[in-house]
Specification:
Layout (H helix, E strand, L loop, with lengths): L20 H8 L3 E5 L2 E4 L1 H20 L2 E3 L5 E3 L8 H5 L4 E4 L5 E4 L4 H9 L10 E10 L14 E11 L2 H21 L4 E5 L9 E8 L5 E6 L5 E3 L20 E4 L6 H8 L7 E8 L2 E8 L6 H8 L4 E3 L2 H5 L17 E4 L8 E4 L5 E6 L8 E3 L17 E16 L1 H5 L3 E3 L5 E3 L1 E8 H11 L1 E2 L2 E2 L10 E5 L5 H16 L4 E4 L5 H11 L3 E5 L7 E6 L5 E5 L3 H12 L2
Parallel strand pairs: 3-7, 15-17, 17-20, 27-28, 27-29
Antiparallel strand pairs: 1-2, 4-6, 5-6, 7-8, 8-24, 9-10, 10-21, 11-12, 11-21, 13-19, 14-15, 14-16, 18-19, 21-24, 22-23, 25-26, 29-30, 30-31
The protein binds one RNA strand through strand 21 and helix 12.
Length: about 575
Amino acid sequence: MKLKNSFFYTIREDIKDEESVSGNLLARSGMIKKTSSGVYSYMPLGYKVLKNIENIVREEMDEINSQELLMPSLIQEDIYASAKRLDSFGSSMFKLKDRYDKSYCLGPTHEELFTLTAKNMVRSFKDLPFSLYQIQTKFRDEARPRYGLIRVREFLMKDAYSFDKDLEGLEVSYNNMYNAYKKIFTRMGIDYRIVKADTGAMGGILSEEFQAITDIGEDTLVFCENCDFSSNLEVCESIVSNIESAEKKLDKDLIETPNVKSIDDVSKFLNEAPSKLVKSLIYNIDGKLYLILVKGDAEVNLTKLSKLMNTENISMATDEEIYKLNTVKGFVGPIDINLPIIMDNEVSTMVNFVVGANKKDYHYKNVNIDDFKADIISDIRNVKEGDMCPKCASKLKFKKGIEIGNTFKLGTKYSECLDLVYADTDNTLKPVVMGCYGIGIGRCLSAIVEQNNDEKGIIWPMNIAPYKVAIVIVDTNNESQMEAANHLYNEFRKENIEVMLDDRKERVGVKFNDMDLIGIPIRITIGKKIDEHICELKLRNEEEINEISIFDVLYKVQDIIEEKNI
RNA sequence: CGGGAAGUAGCACAACUUGGCAGUGCGCUUGGUUUGGGACCAAGAGGUUGCAGGUUCAAAUCCUGUCUUCCCGACCA
């Protein structure tokens, strides 16, 4: 592409509306443009990057014999009713009506449609296994879009689905996909980790997430310092350690704690560590109130609580609901309260602890678990950094990540709901065993930028860059420079090397800064020394500038591209 | 959905408190001087101050409503 006479712009100052590094750099480099909250256009340069990402995905999907197709975005709403997902997606589904008042939605995910599609073909065990995928726009009405392309309401997703006759088959398909994903993210140059995750609205047997490591990540990931254990915080099992050995005091003490409400306040007021207190929270679980107990320095894990109680309908009790109970907000405790109690298993290791007295301005000291009755005792807390690894008992540490891919062993959830069955060798009808596998294309793009940038702009990995080479002409009025640059440009094009020719009538500093901002990996500068057949070669991620003969440039560039391509 | 902030030229912002010609920097146009890391001088173009209503002789400024965007939280594959 020749920059003169093309659609190309950059923005010099920070964009007020884009706080995240990736969102800001992508907007400033003229790659994306927001049209409304969580909805973006890809400009020519950004679209080239997007296609490069898509192509890596396509190549690796082809490699494992997954076939591409394309489904609609406009979908009759009742398709989602069959697997009871109208509720689980609920308000995050974009809904609309046609002129006959029939209900449609913009598809948030496509398990149902793919399952129905498979029914067109699957009759017998001989038709299995196979896998299908698409790269298509998904719509989710996010409560709060943020961080540029990372959490958006309309986004490109690669979603793949595998169809097998049994769990052994699924295991093979799943592993194929899993390995393909590893190759895909490695080729994109993303620093990622794989963690165990919640199956959420997808349902099924197993979920693993591919997480790009970055500080603005919305997920907290748990790793072991010693072994290969990894998990998303929301499903990470907590191990009970540090059983307190002090002797139990027989009598609890009622103590006055005027206006001392939060764990922090109580801890300071009594000069006791938060780990000597028990946090009492009232939750509304499926319409019924429960008292939840965790150690003072622990957090309740809603995913675990939700699984334990087998419902997604969980929220903190409202002030109104608490007001009706025989307790006072800020002084809630397990003693003499008329609520079923769900206690975290770590609380059972505590002795002589502090709880609210269900009475304004009072707490109990020296309380022990014999002083009340817990109805359910289970792991309902988040692990903390430094806690014991569930696998090897070493210490756990945290990192932040962006979920860029997710793989699910779905099992037969959808095939049973939608009657996708096959005749087995014994002529009995069995449900097809499915897996589903997603990659957020736009999120990959953002994650790459989050991980690859400096104060000057984006540093694209070779495989992703919109153009691999930028030829910068120092003086566009100089005929020999123009001629040499154009000649080189044509040479590159002949060799199918994606090249950008900066032939704009700008000062050279402007061109250098623009090429740095948009992150082109290789820069060739054609300047004064062109009369001696010398030009300059500089890599975006290195400081050094090398003078080389114009006749060697093509081969040198080919070498660099080959070396950096994965 | 709860809390906070903000909407003024393509971008970033000032003027608002105390109502009185709509401003600055970058970018853009023209001319000139420059020319290897975001040049300089001069002259210009560009605005329904988010939108609607109200108060007033007069509203970017005060009042009411509304829309939009961002941040923290809730929610979320």
